[in-house]
Amino acid sequence: MMTNDIFAEGFKEEPYWWDAVPRARLAEEALPSKADVVVVGSGFAGLNCAIEIARGGRDTLVLEAQDAGFGASTRLAGYIGRFMHYSFTKLTGMFGLENAKRMWLESGEAQTVVLKRIEQEQMEVGKLWRGRFTGACSPEHYEMLAQNAELINKHCPFEFSMCPKSEQHKEVGTDFWHGGMILHEHGTLHPGKYHQGLLQAALNAGAKVHDFTPVMRIVPERKGFTVKTARGVVNARDVVICTNGYTNTTASAIPWVRNRIIPVPAHQICTEPIPSELMKAIKPSGRAVLDSKVNIYWDRPTPDDRQIIFGARTGRDEGSLKLNARKLHDCMTEVYPQLKDVKLSHVWQGVMGFSFDKLPHMGETRDGVYYATGFCGSGLPLGTSFGKTIGNRVLGKKEGESAFWNVGFPTWPFYNGNPWFLRAYVAWIDFNDRRGGQGHIVRGG
Questions:
Q1: What's residue 444's pLDDT?
Q2: Could you give the CA distance from residue 419 to residue 248 in angstroms, rounded to a whole number?
Q3: CA-closest candidate to residue 83, choices 374, 444, 356
Q4: Is 260:361 a contact under the CB 8 Å cutoff?
Q5: Which residues make beta-bridge pairs with 63?
Q6: Range 7-443 classified under CATH 3.50.50.60
Q7: CA 351 – CA 314 distance, rounded (Å)
Q8: Tens of pLDDT, residues 182-206
Q9: Distance of CA 226 to the CA centre of its chain
Q10: In 10 A of CB 322, how many CB atoms?
Q11: 414: how many CB neighbours lie within 10 A of its CB?
């Protein structure tokens, strides 16, 4: 019989980030009948898009189905860094050397876009700039990490160093990995505070943000669009979709985008406060961590260095949040046995948006609807960067150019946003991970 012994007093089934930044409740106002631009989604992409467009002088309306920031933007781990799901060699084979370089550089520049936005808006976001440790799950993964990083660095220089297993305890207090790679440019922040800063910046720029206004349908007209919502109808010259992992909740609003995004659930836990000596033993470098599997483990210290946030088992769902918490606690203590007696303060779920080709996408549909989506687990840097880029695209500015613009956006026959295949696909990935197959962060991002 299972007990509740891993749950601390006051245990919450909601994001740790919401403790410091509770969900914002916006003043309820009548929905306007028209706007120059309607942005659907109030996450990192939607708000960065709205900031650019509103500051460009256009009447901007953000529509959100729940409260502002309810989705992944206030649920993710808060990692800042470069990220691509393909090795540089694979990306070159898909798009050619010059396009691969452009994509890699643009994805890497996304973290700079985040940092500039924070500085520009003078946000206090609990930033920890300590780099990231990518743990190699086998000696073979360690070699692949090193080889791919060298190849990337040849074409797109970035700061990294390899850490052999003999030096691993200087970085992480575990023998779980076989050495790893340190990405010195990477960091973390408090995503709740970052989202709060973006929301305030969008409002200050003159954008109107309406929460609890789900979009039901977007109808192309001769000049612009009719946007039908649960609270009324808005006529708009331009529409931008920034819903990512929550795209299938927009019903038939924009089926072309919905049918190309796979919603993938991810769970995270947060420990109770840990004694400083134990925290230092587990996190001697204080770095955030993820590993080289496809279905990765990841962890990071909270901004105050008192607790650890841990995630794993992406795409799996045990039913209740408490059952998911138990599974994650098992994974966490597999990596850090020292935490077996440490209880949990929080567990929560978010939904990521993956594309079938594991690339982020931005572009314009045949009907002229703009979209920025498919961030594939890297929604903080890519959502920020893509949101800003597509905002400038709507304004007709040169800054709206992108290596990812209208890159082929595949789907599967008869797919309608319901990932019926996800359970089997994740089981296959986990099987290959257990066999030591080529991993996912092995390419050095």
A1: 37
A2: 10
A3: 444
A4: yes
A5: 40, 210
A6: yes
A7: 10
A8: 999 899 999 999 999 999 999 999 9
A9: 30
A10: 16
A11: 7
What is the rounded CA–CA span in Å between residue 300 and residue 134?
12
Q: Of the candidates 46, 60, 45, 58, which has an alpha carbon nearest to the alpha carbon of residue 395?
A: 58
Q: What is the pLDDT of residues 350-380, one digit of tens each?
A: 999 999 999 999 999 999 999 999 999 999 9
Main-chain phi, psi angles of 303, to 5 degrees:
-55, -25
pLDDT in tens, 32-56: 999 999 999 999 999 999 999 999 9
The 10 Å CB-count burial string (b at 16+, else e) for 165-183 is eeebeebbbbebbbbbbbb
Tell me which H or E stretch contains 88: helix 88-95
CA 253 vs CA 146, 248, 256, 335: distances in Å: 45, 9, 9, 43
Q: Is 237 helix (H, G, I), strand (E, B) or coil?
A: strand
> Which residues of the chain are under the pLDDT cut of 70?
1-4, 83, 249-252, 437-445
* DSSP states along 297-364: -EEEE-TTSS-EEEEE-TT---SSHHHHHHHHHHHHHHH-GGGTT--EEEEEEEEEEEETTS--EEEE
What is the identity of the amino acid at 410?
P
Domain map (residue ranges) of the chain:
7-443
Residues 236, 240, 245, 250: what is their CA dihedral angle, to the nearest 10 degrees?
A: 20
Cα atoms in the Cβ-side hemisphere of radius 13 Å centred on 262: 25
pTM: predicted TM-score of the whole model, two decimal places: 0.95
3-class secondary structure, 222: coil
Q: What amino acid is encoded at 140 in this protein?
A: E
* φ/ψ of residue 57, rounded to 5: 95, 10
